[in-house]
Amino acid sequence: MTYKKLWTSLALVLILSFAVLGFYGGKIYQEKPPIPERVVTTDGTVLFIK
Predict the structure, then answer these.
(1) Which of 27, 1, 43, 35 is nearest to 10 (CA)?
(2) What is the distance between the alpha carbons of residues 2 and 9, in angstroms, rounded to a whole number?
(3) At CB < 8 A and 24+ separation, what contacts does 32-36 make?
């Protein structure tokens, strides 16, 4: 096998790997859980404000 084929194979593997990471990273970002504007206890005390 020549070095040109090895470098091409390496480049192809890297491109495909980053494409998969980017695809699933985008899906995870889009499906993230909602973040509430504020959190209040049952007696009305505000615990957290965004």
Answers:
(1) 1
(2) 11
(3) none
Please tell me the distance from the alpha carbon of residue 50 to that of residue 36, in angstroms, as a whole number: 7
Q: How many domains does the chain have?
A: 1
Q: For residue 21, what are the domain limits? A: 3-49
Structure confidence at residue 50 (pLDDT): 82
Indicate yes or no: pTM above 0.70: no
Q: Which residues contact 3 (CB under 8 A, 6 or more apart)?
A: none
pLDDT (tens digit per residue) in 1-50:
689 999 999 999 999 999 999 999 999 999 988 888 999 999 999 998 88
Q: How many helices (H) and strands (E) does the chain have?
A: 1, 2
